[in-house]
Fold this sequence. Notes:
Blueprint: E1 7-10, E2 13-16, H1 37-62, H2 87-92, H3 103-119, H4 121-124, H5 136-158, H6 162-168, H7 181-190, H8 192-195, H9 214-223, H10 237-248
Antiparallel strand pairs: 1-2
Amino acid sequence: MHRGKGMTFVGDSRIKKYEKAKLNRDYSEFPGKTESFWPDFLLKEWMTGAVFLIAFLCLTVAHPAPLERVADPSDTGYTPLPDWYFLFLYQILKYTYASGPFNTFGAIVLPGIAFAALLLAPWLDTSRHRLWYKRPVASGMMLLTVAILFYTTWESSHYHDWEKQEAQGKITFSNLDKKDPAYTDIIKSNCTSCHGGELTGGAGPNLVEANLQPAAVEAFVTNGAGKMPSFKDTLSKDQIKQVAEYVANLELTDENGKPLKK
């Protein structure tokens, strides 16, 4: 090769000289090497997305999400549990400084400070070092935050009553009639806060599976039992009798309303 042929001298370096490729926008001249964005490329993307979507739908049909019974705002005995990625905040709200009169601080102020610090991180940490151990303040805060998230998530999961969680969300069918005057006028305002809107239990016992006799129910409502208060000063004898008959007739059924065999 002759000296300097195909080379361009730049200072003391020698760099090969290349002609800039002239691309022809007529893609038909380059079959299999390039394609137009519309519709060729997008069509492939849509087909790939459709395959994954169908696979996901098949998975949800084969393994449906575990659903609980219908939400009942009148059931004060129900203990809600958020998804796992909110367990850390759920646990923080149990601490003294973030619950009760300080609930606003735990639910709004504390998370707000954390998110604000995250948003302002580029301005709060202006170090030019890229190695984590040369940025002790930022790295220390990050490790502390991760440790708190892991610990509070573990603590919330470890001390939660999972058996109670499964029992309180269990779907049961019964012949309970929410349109009955005994329910709408008496039971809904006096009983559901402890026994749940379906009377399947909460802070109080399950009345559907108890198989109580009218006389027993009437005695409980009149005199109280355990932590259950007496309603003799709240309800009339006729109302107590209506409640007793209503509760005594409750029984489990299948999803079609047919009584289950005992």
